[in-house]
Write a structure and sequence with these properties.
Layout lengths: L11 H12 L7 E5 L5 H13 L4 E5 L6 H9 L8 E6 L5 H8 L4 E5 L8 H8 L8 E2 L4 H16 L3 H21 L5
Parallel strand pairs: 1-2, 1-3, 3-4, 4-5
Helix pairs in contact: 2-6, 3-4, 6-7
Length: about 190
């Protein structure tokens, strides 16, 4: 059910107006998911689907730290006012998006390094994890595992305040445990 996270393409100011109107009919998204390129969607759709499975509404955007820096900065600076409580930022290559987002908000920022065009994502991992003191980015594994774990961690953070999300995270953990136990003897 990706429809709840799809967002029409328009400027940040138009987007804020869209969200204000939308909030009159629903609670609004708690997680902002941003990625540096549309090519990151193949990985980040796992993040979004995990958030949805936990009942967490999100907003999803493609914004570049290098090609749209002012829009990315404004998106991060206005996140809290839009009701966002956790940001997830994914990027490949130079992977500065999570750091830019973290520098513009005091909300928790979870970074997901993407496999890029060189070094199998190690460049992205190092760029995301090596933040200067005072501008934290919680960095996850490269690719799909990191995308899913970032969503689960967002759920754990939100679960501190939202009981329904906390219970959904507990259910998810138990389902994953049961899936492993159901395998039994792999030779069968």
């Amino acid at each position: 059910m990706l429809a709840m996270c799809n967002v029409p393409a328009f400027s940040v100011l138009q987007y804020e107006d869209y969200l204000r109107k939308r909030r009159k009919t629903m609670a609004g998204p708690l997680v902002g998911v941003v990625m540096g390129s549309k090519s990151d969607w193949g990985t980040m759709e796992h993040c979004v689907s995990t958030l949805e499975s936990l009942g967490i509404e999100c907003e999803v955007r493609v914004l570049s730290a290098h090609r749209t820096p002012h829009v990315a900065a404004e998106f991060a600076q206005t996140a809290e006012a839009r009701g966002i409580e956790v940001m997830i930022a994914a990027a490949g290559g130079a992977a500065h998006l999570a750091g830019v987002v973290a520098s513009m908000t005091t909300l928790p920022v979870l970074g997901v390094p993407m496999v890029g065009w060189s070094l199998d994502g190690m460049d992205s991992l190092l760029a995301t994890v090596q933040m200067p003191r005072g501008v934290p980015v919680a960095t996850f594994a490269i690719g799909k595992a990191g995308a899913v774990n970032a969503a689960l961690c967002a759920g754990q953070i939100l679960g501190l305040k939202h009981e329904a999300i906390r219970e959904a995270v507990k259910r998810d953990r138990e389902e994953r445990r049961q899936a492993v136990l159901a395998v039994g003897d792999p030779r069968e």
